[in-house]
Amino acid sequence: MTNTRLTPMKKKEYISAYLMIAPIVIGILVFFLVPTIWSIGLSFTEGPDYVTYSFVGFRNYASLFSAQSDMWQELLNTFYYAFVSVILSMIVSVLLANALNKEIRFRSLFRVIYFLPSVTMAAAVGMVWRSLLNSQYGVVNQALGAVGISGPKWLTDPNFMMLGVIIVGVWSSAGYNMIILLAGLKNIPRVYYEAAEIDGANAYRQFRHVTIPLLSPVLFFISITSLMGGFKAFDVIYTLAGSGATADKFMKYYRTMVFGIYEKGFLYHKLGMASAEAVVLLLIILALTLVQFRLQNKWVHYE
């Protein structure tokens, strides 16, 4: 029979390993798994406050999917923001990473400048951009006016309000994605580019047929994390929308599902409805993530 007893050295190694993974495991249990299960349970209840509940079955879900529900507008805004911002952010991030991967002057300084928005508080970002996008004195419209373009009312025109939020979202996330892509570019062997040069490929063909395919695993990772972040967008949208009668008038054009969850749960104290919408959002993100994993074989190339 095989001796399965662990030596004192092996025991110490196992204990050290468990201690190292303990913080992340405890964090997932406390801040993700337990709240998720609790929210699923609350979605089948309703009550006047945070301590009194009564079971109502699928009534909350029926209310969410009714024709009069605000969730349809929130769902539309969420999909619009998530997909457009993710696509634009990935395009900008790839172009920035490819440019800053070359030997240029002040390369490190430019990397820091582009990464700074990612570590800036979202509330501060929203307040600053609210001033920049102001239709009367904002820098953005003044810059557009300098080249003969009449700037729109970014914060009050329904046709441009979500576009303004997308611009801020791309500006905030492109730097973070750029850093990840730079790490991916560093791992691409130079020999592939040398072979492409021998075959007569110019810079564009090298970028299209060498860089993008070999960078696809990193792009796949970014697409998943960015899409999750897009569907959970709240803080920048909340600060851009502002408050008061004007904000209430145009809020339906800003509303996302996370904003609806916040409003139902913390403003109207409808915890059951908020939990039901949170479950719906969780299922949407889960479904889209599974679709991305199923489609990765068609465009992701691993060495």
In short:
The protein is mainly α. The chain has helices spanning 8-42, 59-64, 71-100, 107-115, 122-132, 139-146, 161-186, 190-198, 203-231, 235-241, 245-254, 257-267, 271-299; strands spanning 45-46, 54-55.
Task: List the main descriptive attributes of the protein structure presented here.
single chain, 303 residues, mainly alpha, MetI-like fold, two-stranded antiparallel sheet, 13 helices
The CATH superfamily name is MetI-like
Number of strands: 2
Q: Which sequence of strands runs across the widest sheet?
A: 1-2
CATH fold type: MetI-like fold
Q: How far apart are the termini?
A: 42 Å
Q: What share of the residues does DSSP label as strand, in percent?
A: under 5%
Mean pLDDT, all residues: 88
N-to-C order of helices and strands: HEEHHHHHHHHHHHH
Describe the sheet with the most strands. Answer: 2 strands, antiparallel
CATH class: Mainly Alpha
Structural class: mainly alpha
